[in-house]
Amino acid sequence: MGIEDTDMVKLKNVEKVYRTSTIETLALTDINLDVRKGEFLSVMGPSGSGKSTLLNIMGLLDDPTGGEIEIDDRPVTHLKGREMARLRNQKIGFVFQSYHLINDLTVVDNVEVPLLYRRMSNAERRRKAAAALDKVGLSARLKHFPSQLSGGQCQRVAIARAIVGQPELILADEPTGNLDSAMSEEILNILIGLNKNENTTIVMVTHNQAMADRTERLIRLFDGSQVQ
Amino acid sequence: MLKNYVKIAWKVLLRRKFFTVISLFGISFTLLVLMLSVASLTYTLDPAKPGSKLARTLFAARIEYRSENNHIISTPSYDFLDKNVRTLTRPERVSILSNNKTTVCYVNNRKLTLDVKYTDGNFWDIMECSFLEGRPYDSAAVAGGAKVAVISEKMRRNYFGDVSAVDKEIEIGGDRFRVVGVIDNREIPFYYAFADVYFPLTTVRTDPFSGTYWGNYMALVLAARKADWGAIQAELKAKTAEIMRQNPDITKLDCIMGNPLDEMAHVFFEDNPARGKVLLISIGILMALLFMLLPTVNLVNLNLSRIIERFSEIGVRKAFGASSMTLVGQFIVENVILTFIGGAIGLILAAIVMEIVSHSGLIPYGHFSLNFKVFFYSIIICLFFGLFSGVYPAFKMSRLHPVEALRGGQL
């Protein structure tokens, strides 16, 4: 295991422009980036530099205005909505800064969400969700609701949800942005563990230099361009 | 997956209780009115229970006569029905009965206003009424001019009190009749059949053979199969054509034989009743749709605001692999669940209102009930309502880009 020679994500001349009737805002310019399988990459840059946009484009949550994207050697720019949804479901897991848990569902139901869109029995789904929660140390909180958990616990549930479908790529957008340093450390350790033990490719956006230093590679963005 | 949808739907409903109550009120009230309309329409226009003899029965209750000097639309005469309808070869059985005649009688110095109907023996066979006590009079009793009567349960209560009435006598119009049976008012299947007292046709004091085509009678024509209706109608048509051929002064003689809807179509659309029937049904459906429009728009609005609240959930589901169509399915299922809860409340309210109306005597002989047909139509209405009010918001939601939804964007 470890970093492989093949690319998990390949971005070629990716560009993102937001247009209104009066203004054109350049969010990303000419991004060329290869993320190799098994790599843990962090993305840094000031607010508004395009980090989240880059992550959303990699995760097929947003369309680039120009350029090409390949996920696992497959060009994805021209895929239809349904095919993109399937690809997201099979290959990618997301961790958001504000967790984005569904408040009406219990912890275990939240973790099951990605599996709802796969052919699987209820029992199998429940078993996998419980196993994912066990990995993040929350097996005692299955029936709790998100409102009954701390911020750190919520983020661990979000990580369990991201890994339950065993995706090859995890995209984490400031996963520790809302947490104190002790909890941030805990979350980072879980992500590093996933990368090391399961060879999951991870791209993490962060503001925290110390955290970025613990990852294998760092890129920096400034005004939509890659500067490092 | 469906279990998950139901769970989410339930939680969403509980989340904004006030909105939920308002939507449920709108849905259940609309459905209540629609169910009552459907109940009264099926009761008057399509009353027969599936599988009953009445479901195979044609009603001959309207005749149109036109000559150079006369144009008469009326119920047919006994004479006409006896000579032309009773003699039809194709029906399994034909019954002739009179229109209701209002009369009064006195019991312990109390005046009772009664609806009286004269029938033959076949009437009871076709109607399949359930008897609380006794039995109907048969064709032999009718032929013999027996002074017997079948009364309704309401009549028994008013005339005798809460005791058995069979073999007791009632006095109406100076004649005494022996009661042979008591029927349950609520079990009488059709308003043509309602009366307080039924007598054999042969006890009518006036001569039913008036010699004209129009009069105060109607016929029930029981076909062996519903498929025979066309042939029976054609047979009667041939007979009236023959009468017209023999009486050249008659320019039109048309005895309408069909169900009550056919009769209504003839009244309103004299020139083309077949098209009229389609038009009447279309008008009914259109009115129901228009009536549903306002609460539907309201529900669409509430649904849109609910979607805005759920942007994050939509974003997450899309991010984790839900396709737009899957989410549309989820939203519609949720909405259908909501409308079915509203429908269930509406159905309970409708049952209560129907029970009150039936017992109030507000509509004479009117007995509305939540029968299979009403229930079936109600489910169709609920489903339609649920789909109709859910599709537009679901469509808007499905077009939402995942990143927009996660950001809490705009619809």
State the main characteristics:
heterodimer, A: 228 residues, alpha/beta, six-stranded mixed sheet, four-stranded antiparallel sheet, 10 strands, B: 411 residues, alpha+beta, 2 domains, seven-stranded mixed sheet, 13 helices, 13 strands, elongated
Description:
The complex is a heterodimer of chains A (228) and B (411). Chain A is of the alpha/beta class and 228 residues long. Helices cover 35% and strands 27% of the residues of chain A. Chain A is built from 7 helices and 10 strands. In chain A, strand 7, helix 6 and strand 8 form a beta-alpha-beta unit. In chain A, helix 3 packs parallel to helix 5 and helix 4 packs across helix 5. Chain B is of the alpha+beta class and 411 residues long. Chain B has 2 domains: 177 residues, no CATH class; 203 residues, no CATH class. In chain B, a hairpin with a 3-residue loop joins strand 1 and strand 2. The radius of gyration of chain B is 28 Å and the shape is elongated. The model of chain B has no long low-confidence stretch (mean pLDDT 83). The chains are: A alpha/beta (228), B alpha+beta (411). At the A-B interface, helix 2 and helix 3 of A face helix 1, helix 10, helix 11 and helix 13 of B.
